[in-house]
Amino acid sequence: MISGGGNGPYYAIRPRPGAPYSIFFILAVLCHPLSEAIIRTETSVFGGGYYSHGKQFLEELPVPNINFASPDAVKEHDAVVVDVKKLITLTDSTRSAMTPATQSVTSKQIEMMRDALEARLNRIFGLTRAGFDVIRSLPIPE
User: Fold this and answer.
1) Residue 47 sits in which domain range?
2) Is 18 left (phi over 0), alpha (psi -120 to 50) or beta?
3) Residues 67/72/78/83 CA torsion (nearest 10 deg)
4) What pLDDT does 63 receive?
5) I need a labelling partner for 98 at 20 to 30 A (CA). Which of 32, 46, 62, 72 fits?
6) Is residue 113 part of a domain?
7) How many domains does the chain fold into?
8) Is 2 helix (H, G, I), strand (E, B) or coil?
9) Is the CB of residue 36 less than 8 Å from the CB of residue 132?
10) Phi–psi pair at 34, nearest 5 degrees
11) 142 located within any domain
12) Which residues contact 62 (CB under 8 A, 6 or more apart)?
């Protein structure tokens, strides 16, 4: 996965060699509101509500510790991977020529899938509803 722009070059992000984490799992973690909240509290702010996602703000983000010896934990990891792949495919399909009605249905499906993925990651992170509400309440830097 690639990040960059704003205050520096582009950065490639990948699992460490030999790590069992899928790049799609890491993508889900990077897109989760917890990661965004951490970045927002530490970031450099630019005009227009843009804030930096530079290396110094990404490199210390927490990745949930998955016990790959546990079949249940592996299932959770793999379910996140499947959800992310489906979400990417569904999002890509909105770029093709669709009727407004089909686009509306697809947009709702994407929103539902994002919500389900977010809830799954909340469980993996061990976030309570109250904790997640605090994360969501952090303002976007100005």
Assistant:
1) 2-137
2) left
3) -120
4) 87
5) 32
6) yes
7) 1
8) strand
9) no
10) -60, -45
11) no
12) 29, 34, 38, 125
Kind plus residue range of the DSSP H or E element containing 33:
helix 33-42
Of 94, 90, 83, whose CA–CA distance to 118 is shortest? 83
Is the distance from CB of 33 to CB of 135 less than 8 angstroms? Answer: yes
| Dihedrals phi, psi of 70, to nearest 5 degrees | -95, 120
- What does the pLDDT look like over 63-109, one tens digit per residue? 898 999 999 999 999 999 999 999 999 888 877 757 878 888 888 89
What are the φ and ψ backbone dihedral angles of 53, each rounded to 5 degrees?
Answer: -120, 40
Task: Label the pairing between strands 10-12 and 2-4.
Answer: antiparallel
Q: Is residue 49 part of a domain?
A: yes
Instruction: Give the span between the Cα atoms of 7 and 30, in whole angstroms.
Output: 18
Structure tokens at 85: 């792949």
Q: Is the pLDDT of residue 1 over 60?
A: no
